Amino acid sequence: MKTYEFVTVDVFTDRRFGGNPLAVFPDARGLSDAEMQALAAEFNLSETTFVLPPDDSANTARVRIFNRTAEMPFAGHPNVGTGWVLAGRGRAKGGMLRFEEIAGLVEVTVDGDAVTIAAPQPLSLGPEMPVELLADCVGIAPGEVIVAAHHPVMASVGNSFIVAEVTGEALTRTVPDIARFRHAVTQYTPPGMGPKRLPLYLYAHHPYTNAGRSGDRIRLRTRMFSPLSGTVEDAATGSAATPLAALLLSLTADQERHYDIVQGVEMGRPSLLLASAHRAADGIRALVGGGCVPVLRGEVSL
After folding, report:
1. How far apart are CA 264 and CA 270, in angstroms?
2. pLDDT tens, 17-74?
3. What are the structural domains, with CATH classification, of the chain?
4. Residue 85: burial class (beta carbons within 10 Å; 0-12, 13-18, 19+)
């Protein structure tokens, strides 16, 4: 029997029991794929990470990310939280870490308790989702989906989400219906999604003046629903905030934009994600960051 250390942290928050909880196994050597998946299901969090030696010694670690039912190519709060944990153990060099993941190399910057990650891929867009189908999944009227800027669309910078703008009132009262999600995947199956994954990321402009703008930052409220993968609602979704930031920049002529994204309020786990997007040689790139707070520490024997 071997013992494995784990820690949990709350991510995208400055207070315990806020933000999005994450379990991290700082040394996962010896764990099988099946054991990693079983541990992620046992913790029953939106994601759990497992840290392994890198394939390239120039990088910090290979990081594997599992949700309750499957491994993920990239995710936001798992990278932020894992970066915070490893930096606290002296693994950051010059305030930087580099994680090898399925979606590519993720660069992590640490500044005190603030951690920022760069998404591994430039923005890519997939097929649009019918408005009526999306609205049906979350119990709102099709007219409450705002299509002036863009229709509901698959967007990715390493992990795909259906991104849609809705009215502020509709965002507050959305309720996912798992039966309707199951029906939706029979009608709409973009690349990388299937019967166990149809994540809907809804946003509205924060109720401030100038369409939610505060200084040079744009304020947004968001909610993310992925009941088919076991996450009925997520408290903070960095891998969705990044394609959202990139998508919104793509609709402008700006070189860069910065966003304050509030999520998790309706769940009682308020989160703040600091996202940005900028134009690069290979397309639109995005970053997201925030604070972390330690919560639990323990061991698992297998």
Report:
1. 5
2. 999 999 999 999 999 999 999 999 999 999 999 999 999 999 999 999 999 999 999 9
3. 3-119+291-301 (3.10.310.10), 124-285 (3.10.310.10)
4. buried
User: 209: which 2 tokens?
Assistant: 């003046």
Name the helix (H) or strand (E) containing 85.
Answer: helix 76-87
69: left (phi over 0), alpha (psi -120 to 50) or beta: alpha
Residues marked active site are found at 47
**Residue 52: in which H helix or E strand, if any?**
strand 48-52
- What is the pLDDT confidence band of residue 195, given thresholds at 50, 70 and 90? confident
The b-or-e profile of 162-179 (16+ CB within 10 A means b, else e) is bbbbbeeebbeebebeee
Which residues, other chains included, contact 268 with Cβ-Cβ below 8 Å and sequence gap of 6+? none
- Tell me the backbone φ, ψ of residue 74, rounded to 5 degrees: -170, 150
> Encoding tokens for residue 95?
């305030």
Helix/strand/coil percentages in the chain, nearest 5: 25, 40, 35
Greatest Cα pair distance in the chain: 60
* 298 vs 23: CA distance, rounded Å: 10
In this predicted structure, what is the pLDDT of residue 208? Answer: 52
137 close to 200: Cβ distance less than 8 angstroms: yes
Which SS3 state, helix, strand or coil, does residue 227 take?
helix
Tell me how far apart the alpha carbons of residues 5 and 147 are, in angstroms, rounded to a whole number: 47
The whole-angstrom separation of Cα 248 and Cα 157 is 13
Sign of CA dihedral 51, 53, 56, 61: positive
